[in-house]
């Protein structure tokens, strides 16, 4: 899916996530001359992108993509005097009402991307309660080249989606590490175990995405009757150990998103 930027886009904050979106957009064919980045220290931006170290007081972006940390939003708001036509905010937790009061955009769309957007394999959830159909289509066209997009019906579910797919890559990277370490504990060289673990997660994810069968059915396909996978699954399934662990993991992340929202409101 290619991206044609027809109007200037300003990206405020090009750190881990803003930078990943920028790389994803450029890889999808966006014209870098349509993109202006504001970030105090970022290096190595794609050629053709305009960089400001501070937000110019007279900046008047048509599309503003806000990608600073939630705790940094106040500093941007205090300098910004414009009112963009479309605000896309990726800030975890921070609600539409807060964004709308701070940036006075005509339309506000919350986006919750995840890190694989940099290679066009991300997941981005979107929510808006004030964008009309054409503006929603415009936001969709901007985000769709970065991977799967899902519109979320109710803003109150945004903290949950942030915990699942926004934070999810962090949990999966930790899982890859743990899988590799477990292989190392059985005697494999660490670098080889890391390669095996990473490729196993990649292949399994691709297969799950391509298959009509549920992940649960696919797990059963790996577990030959009387074989070794079942013995391992019995450990993960005992007292719902893995399910319970992930419920507590996502609940902790969702709680933090709610705290960030409360801080941004005040
Ligand atoms: N990381 C992820 O996987 C995801 C993050 N998000 C959201 O993305 C946002 C950014 O997170 P992340 O990329 O991890 O954080 P980073 O700290 O990596 O990125 C934020 C960037 O904004 C810069 N910045 C700070 N103040 C300003 C300012 N006033 N004007 C312009 N730029 C500024 C920071 O510079 P400096 O470092 O010098 O402060 C930094 O480069 C957060 O709101 C987060 O909730 C959403 C989904 C996934
Ligand atoms: O950790 C964070 O706060 C952000 C939100 C989703 C992923 N990273």
TrEMBL record:
<keyword id="KW-0963">Cytoplasm</keyword>
<dbReference type="InterPro" id="IPR008927">
    <property type="entry name" value="6-PGluconate_DH-like_C_sf"/>
</dbReference>
<keyword id="KW-0028">Amino-acid biosynthesis</keyword>
<comment type="similarity">
    <text>Belongs to the pyrroline-5-carboxylate reductase family.</text>
</comment>
<feature type="domain" description="Pyrroline-5-carboxylate reductase catalytic N-terminal">
    <location>
        <begin position="11"/>
        <end position="92"/>
    </location>
</feature>
<dbReference type="InterPro" id="IPR000304">
    <property type="entry name" value="Pyrroline-COOH_reductase"/>
</dbReference>
<feature type="binding site">
    <location>
        <begin position="12"/>
        <end position="17"/>
    </location>
    <ligand>
        <name>NADP(+)</name>
    </ligand>
</feature>
<dbReference type="InterPro" id="IPR053790">
    <property type="entry name" value="P5CR-like_CS"/>
</dbReference>
<dbReference type="InterPro" id="IPR036291">
    <property type="entry name" value="NAD(P)-bd_dom_sf"/>
</dbReference>
<dbReference type="GO" id="GO:0005737">
    <property type="term" value="C:cytoplasm"/>
</dbReference>
<dbReference type="InterPro" id="IPR028939">
    <property type="entry name" value="P5C_Rdtase_cat_N"/>
</dbReference>
<feature type="binding site">
    <location>
        <begin position="67"/>
        <end position="70"/>
    </location>
    <ligand>
        <name>NADP(+)</name>
    </ligand>
</feature>
<dbReference type="Pfam" id="PF14748">
    <property type="entry name" value="P5CR_dimer"/>
</dbReference>
<keyword id="KW-0521">NADP</keyword>
<keyword id="KW-0641">Proline biosynthesis</keyword>
<dbReference type="Pfam" id="PF03807">
    <property type="entry name" value="F420_oxidored"/>
</dbReference>
<comment type="pathway">
    <text>Amino-acid biosynthesis; L-proline biosynthesis; L-proline from L-glutamate 5-semialdehyde: step 1/1.</text>
</comment>
<dbReference type="GO" id="GO:0004735">
    <property type="term" value="F:pyrroline-5-carboxylate reductase activity"/>
</dbReference>
<feature type="domain" description="Pyrroline-5-carboxylate reductase dimerisation">
    <location>
        <begin position="155"/>
        <end position="260"/>
    </location>
</feature>
<dbReference type="GO" id="GO:0055129">
    <property type="term" value="P:L-proline biosynthetic process"/>
</dbReference>
<protein>
    <recommendedName>
        <fullName>Pyrroline-5-carboxylate reductase</fullName>
        <ecNumber>1.5.1.2</ecNumber>
    </recommendedName>
</protein>
<comment type="function">
    <text>Catalyzes the reduction of 1-pyrroline-5-carboxylate (PCA) to L-proline.</text>
</comment>
<dbReference type="InterPro" id="IPR029036">
    <property type="entry name" value="P5CR_dimer"/>
</dbReference>
<keyword id="KW-0560">Oxidoreductase</keyword>
């Amino acid at each position: 899916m290619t991206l044609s930027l027809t109007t200037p886009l300003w990206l405020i904050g090009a750190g881990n996530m803003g930078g990943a979106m920028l790389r994803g957009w450029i890889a999808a064919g966006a014209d870098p001359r349509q993109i202006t980045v504001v970030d105090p220290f970022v290096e190595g931006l794609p050629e053709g992108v305009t960089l400001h170290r501070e937000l110019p007081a007279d900046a008047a972006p048509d599309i503003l993509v806000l990608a600073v940390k939630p705790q940094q939003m106040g500093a941007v708001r205090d300098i910004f005097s414009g009112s963009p036509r479309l605000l896309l905010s990726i800030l975890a937790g921070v609600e539409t009402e807060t964004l709308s009061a701070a940036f006075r955009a005509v339309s506000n769309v919350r986006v919750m991307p995840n890190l694989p957007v940099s290679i066009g394999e991300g997941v981005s959830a979107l929510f808006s309660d004030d964008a009309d159909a054409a503006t929603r289509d415009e936001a969709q066209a901007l985000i769709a080249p970065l991977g799967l997009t899902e519109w979320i019906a109710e803003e109150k579910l945004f903290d949950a989606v942030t915990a699942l797919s926004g934070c999810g890559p962090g949990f999966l990277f930790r899982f890859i590490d743990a899988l590799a370490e477990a292989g190392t504990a059985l005697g494999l060289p660490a670098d080889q175990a890391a390669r095996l673990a990473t490729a196993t997660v990649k292949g399994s994810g691709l297969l799950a995405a391509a298959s009509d069968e549920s992940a649960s059915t696919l797990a059963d396909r790996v577990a030959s009757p009387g074989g070794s996978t079942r013995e391992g699954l019995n450990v993960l399934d005992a007292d719902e150990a893995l399910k319970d662990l992930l419920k507590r993991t996502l609940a902790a992340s969702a709680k933090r998103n709610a705290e960030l929202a409360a801080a941004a409101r005040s």
